[in-house]
Write a structure and sequence with these properties.
Helix content: 10-25%
CATH class of the largest domain: Mainly Beta
Number of domains: 3
CATH superfamily of the largest domain: Glycoside hydrolase, family 65, N-terminal domain
CATH architecture of the largest domain: Distorted Sandwich
Number of strands: 39
Number of helices: 8
Length: about 725
Amino acid sequence: MIVRWGKLVTALAVSMMAVGFAAGPAAAYEVIETTGPIEEISLGDDLSCQVKYVNDVDLEFYPPDTTPGDCATILATGGNLYAPEFESHGRTATWGLDSYYTFTPISQTGVTGTGTAADPYRVTTVVEAAGSDLLISETTSYVAGSNTYRIDTSVTNRGGSQVSVNLYHAGDCYASGSDIGFGFTRTEVGSAGCSQTAQNSPAARTIQMAPLSATSRYFEAKYNEVWERIATQSPFPNTCRCGEHIDNGVGLSWSFSLLPFSGSTVRSLAVAFTESTPPPPGADTDGDALPDRWETGNGASGDYENLAPLGADPNRKDVFVHLDYMDGCKPPAGWEKPAIQVFAQHGIALHVDSGSDSINADGQPWGSRSRAGAIPKQDNIDLWGPFDALKDTNFVPSNRRRAFHYAALVNEFDHGDGGLARNIPEADFLFSACSVPPWLKIGLKRYVTAVFVHELGHNLGLRHGGNEDMNGKPNYYGIMNYYWTYRGGVGETPNVAEPEYSRSTRPEIDEHHVDERVPQVLPVAWNCPGSKPEEIEYELGRGTSTIDWDCDGIRGEPSYGTNLNSKFGPGETVIKGFNDWAPGVMKFNGGGVLGNFDLPERPSTPVSHELTIEEFATAQKARERSRREARKQLVVETGRHRLKAGGPVTLRLRVTTEAKGKRVRGARIKLRGATPIGRNPKTTDRHGSITLKLRPKRRGDVQIFATRHGFTRGGLVLTVHHGAKHTKAPGPKKSG
């Protein structure tokens, strides 16, 4: 039975130990040791933790002299609670957890990495929740010199049934040598913490837990209330006893379900410790190009030096955008919410001020904090001088230029319409979205959000191919690719759901070794050139499918050489996917403008080509033609893909259309590379099916074609396996 002590009892236990009473064996743990400011991060092999901060005599979690301490990852599933074996640590005050099972340690690495941003110090700990089929792998990483460390917890279901999980990370605070303190929250990102001042004002030493994964909930209260809430196996309530001076604790929780047979998910958070003294002028803890001094609100020169009241946090990346709009072009209410959510899912707070009623990253209207709004309407904006003049209306007087991107929603500009970033990366862009033509088939709100996120991506250093200008890559699935900029709508899959950047690097495509027999992970946008280069055929759906790379109506052909990217020009042979969210990809300094104490000169930069409304209209109409053609394109399917040469084969075929898989009756079947055996039906039956008996020839593969009046011919290729060639051994010579 696990014994749980309160804090007064643990003090008595220390006295008993001093006169000869022994505590239980200490948990095994690894220590990330650095020069500071976080000098030690101790990580138990049971998912417990403890921290030592520079110049502090006491450790940062209770008990202040015990490693590991009352800081841990805890999990609830199936009515059972799993936690570290706190009692083996020597001292603990986790009695509020009541009954629980202890994690079973599986493995723990030593400290790896060099402590740089590209290669942080890391320790990975693996445990299992015995009897639940859940495996937990947790990686803690730290960049030397930072006030923050990161925790990534992966939970995998190895069982055969779906399970529901509540995951917690919590600690009993002992910040800056005191067991008593106040609480504070950052509701715009869902973080909470312990501080020596109420709501951390004025700024003091803190222990802050900030989510880096969506759907988290926070809780700050008396330490035993935090453990008791976890004991109920319920999500945290998003509450804070911020104004009370109490013996406090803090934590985050996530609720999710895991599919059977290796269903898994990862939840991440950052644990931050801040100082009461202002940071040096150039310090930038979170790497968002906004100095910590600006993000803590210590400046008085204007909004750019006083970002804390606007929701900035020195321990989490922030992106600020000031959006003005011409009279008659005010964006629809709520357009910014999907964009904010996309950035929040990656641990970044997006703050878009487009007027007093627009929504900030914390979900609240900007109100009196807003400086953006209407600008004089002009029929056509020349670039970039008149554009710079527009800034004089609201943006320049607000003194935001060192911290905010500037965007203008205009009637029209001399590039045409659509959107345009000033350069890549940059801090300026404009777009025209006063109305959306009926053929676009998406609402104004979706359109404004999509163009805004696309152009902001250019400001952050992203190109139409991610890291390159090759547009329309079939293996680059994100909003920077024109194929996906306006597809679908917010909340829809598998088309671009939220206005989202590419989340992963999809496999490379070598145009000299394309094999139509290899299924591709969908969705894939592939261009089948017609009489015009903008005619587009989309390969959409879920799961995997073979792609008709050469657009000849026949799928499943062997490898061949082709110029897949002919529309982009010669020279490239390998088309590469790209992960826009990979570390170090996005550039947050606006091409040197943001975070700069001395504003640089803004040279007149070349206008890069962007999608115009007219170009998109042409592409949209081409897509409609492609859909109509897809309803006429015949597809031949069979369960076999390899045939033995010479041997009789019975094939069951089905003929459908490209669109929706509709079965086609009366389709005529033709063969190449095989000889029919006996009498075979010539056309498909009412189910679109036909059974053929044939004998593959000795050379070449078997090609099967389907034709029908009013439809486009389709087919497939079956590989013929020839095997080893056998000859009869010579017999003995006859005499005489």
